[in-house]
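Sample intake — DUF977 family protein
Collected from: Chitinophaga sancti
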Amino acid sequence: MAAIFLRALQRQKRRLEAKVEKENLLLMQLPELSLQILQLVQSRGKATISDIVTITNANRNTVKKHLEMLVETKRLQKNGIGKGTWYTI
């Protein structure tokens, strides 16, 4: 019984390692600003466009484009509407 459980854990570990490797490859393809935005949202739990613009010193419209792409690729989730919008992982 223990051997079956151990094999199942090993298979799960290999699948998770492959998933992590794939995610790392995808992250390496992101522009620097997108990576900064992801790190910012992850460290704070949530962030608004104004937060991101203030911290990164990036142009507001550039930040919006990066956020749109991150939401489309499901790396971030958009919450709220209009000026009350914030982003989470």
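Post-analysis note: The longest strand covers residues 77-79.
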